Amino acid sequence: MHLQESPAMANNIAWIRANLLRFEGDVRKWVRRSCPRGTEEDDVIQEAYARIAAAPDLGHVSNPRAYFLTVVRHIAFEQLRRARIAPIMLVEDFGASDIIDESAGPDRIVAGQQELRRIAAIVEAFPEKIREIFQLRRIQGLPQKEIARRLGVPESTVEKRAAKGLAMLLAALRTDDEDAAADDADAPARRPGSGAWR
After folding, report:
1. How many CA within 13 A on the CB side of residue 162?
2. Domains in the chain, ordered, with CATH?
3. How high is the pLDDT of residue 141?
4. Which of 7, 10, 37, 169 has its CA 20 to 30 A from that of 85?
């Protein structure tokens, strides 16, 4: 199954190639050094690339290396929180000032939280088998092999259902974005500086 790339995703993928690939070695070292044994390094890196590729806008990123590390650290922290494990070294390392993206103000944090709620609602509406695998793979971060073992299905089934879930999520997000853009286009415009409607 091929996922259809949106122009924004294609731009983000080009941005990843131009700005992040050169830092992958540093990020992998951080994952190996800071994450608990058993963490699937490739899964963390690929999840980071997937999240960055799906980001609505990367124009705010002034420090690509810091942004990449921040995304990876969030993924690792989510995995740790789910596993209820929080090694002191990792928690301390999360506060490192050299990786914080200073441009992420409160408005961006609130927007991110709203986006997460939006995604959770979309995923909740998936068919049960797709939702279960999507949640295990994308939310809990389990490797495909482990999911296949747990559910007693072939690894190819896990891969197909995870891809189907991602395609469904991207399609739903795209539809929501198009609906929001249409609503914005239909809204009356204000005259600049006056607060009055045209």
Report:
1. 23
2. 1-102 (no CATH), 105-178 (1.10.10.10)
3. 76
4. 169
